[in-house]
Amino acid sequence: MSRELLERLARRGMTPGLERIRDLLARLDHPERAFRVVLVGGTNGKGSTARALARILQASGERVGLFTSPHLLDVRERIEVNAAAIAPEALDDLLVRLAPRLEAGGASYFEALAAAALVHFAEQGVTTAVLEVGLGGRFDAVNAADPVLSIITNVALDHTDWLGPTLAHVAREKAGILRPGRPALTAATGAGADFLAAAARARGARLERVAPSHVEVHGYGVAFALGGGVYAAPLMGRHQAANLALAVRAARELGADEAAVRAGLAAVRHPGRLEYRPAERLLLDGAHNPAGARALARALADYFPAGPKILVFAASRDKDASGMAAALAPAFEAVWLTRYPGARAADPAALARFFPAARVEPDPQVALERALEARPPGGLVVAAGSLYLLGALMRERAGFPAEPPR
């Protein structure tokens, strides 16, 4: 039942606006008012920040709900309580109960899952919910909740067809999750930070910029200094220091102590984001825009400076493949271009103009196997460009059934 319902809702597409989700939550007696809410938006790093904050709050004794997107293997990954994904039968039950209202109210796929998460959190006695923004902020479904704290990781160009063509447009959309008189945190820099600060002033929000210092890579993780303390987490990439610093500062704002901060950081994981599988010498990263591609290229230089590298790449049609290629192509000796299942995927033959001498293999599993077979001793294979690509690769390798095209 739940699978069929979600497929029907997915076919509706996406229409910006909060009217549907607000009406739905009102009809459900406002489950979002049963707990504290933290909203996490931004162009990149939302998921890492949200997961780290959730783990810290859990370590401090809170019962924490976490809502994220997209998922990699199973839609249940989007709805967690204290790091445990919602049970299959619980999600089925929720969607069966909500189905009449979802259908009648014209809810989208994302709105349905957001509503289900909020109901689940209320029924599970969650004390704080960390909600990741799906797209933008101002009209995103999670913005129907009233946050005690908002986080905007950064501001860069992405989803320009929805959010607008300039950084100022993007900043305005992301600033929509801020609330007058409420605290807000960001790690944004440069022009994006300036536009965001102006948008925050216009909304009357108390925006604080958080900046870690003395960032170092260590093992397959990252260490950084913040406010007199030195912290570490098992997430790869210097860019993660900014995300983790936001989580630390947010947790302190919400009352977490130092022991909880350190325990939570030690426990954080984020599959599909610079996820290294040493047995296969395979690195999975969902870098899906130029900023993410640049972060991946820096991570390769930091963690894998030696040895040849082969890229398996796919992207969505609405992404800046040229910008991603400019960041990634110099780091690789060979490139396989492919696609993930779904109408949003870019034609790999069309991507070839951005990657000189690349090979094209439309089947992502075949592309990956050929890259692994061609990898010389000491070499590394990297799959990147879209979380949907990683989902397709990981599902088959884990023995999961294929999902409907997204």
TrEMBL record:
Residues 272-386 form the Mur ligase C-terminal domain. It catalyses: (6S)-5,6,7,8-tetrahydrofolyl-(gamma-L-Glu)(n) + L-glutamate + ATP = (6S)-5,6,7,8-tetrahydrofolyl-(gamma-L-Glu)(n+1) + ADP + phosphate + H(+). Keywords: ATP-binding, Ligase, Magnesium, Metal-binding, Nucleotide-binding. GO terms for cellular component: cytoplasm. Signal peptide: none annotated. PROSITE patterns: FOLYLPOLYGLU_SYNT_1. Transmembrane segments: none annotated. Residues 40-250 form the Mur ligase central domain. GO terms for molecular function: ATP binding; dihydrofolate synthase activity; metal ion binding; tetrahydrofolylpolyglutamate synthase activity. Its EC number is 6.3.2.17. The keyword tRNA processing does not apply. The keyword ATP-binding applies. Belongs to the folylpolyglutamate synthase family. This is tetrahydrofolate synthase. It comes from Oceanithermus profundus (strain DSM 14977 / NBRC 100410 / VKM B-2274 / 506). The lineage of its organism: Bacteria, Thermotogati, Deinococcota, Deinococci, Thermales.
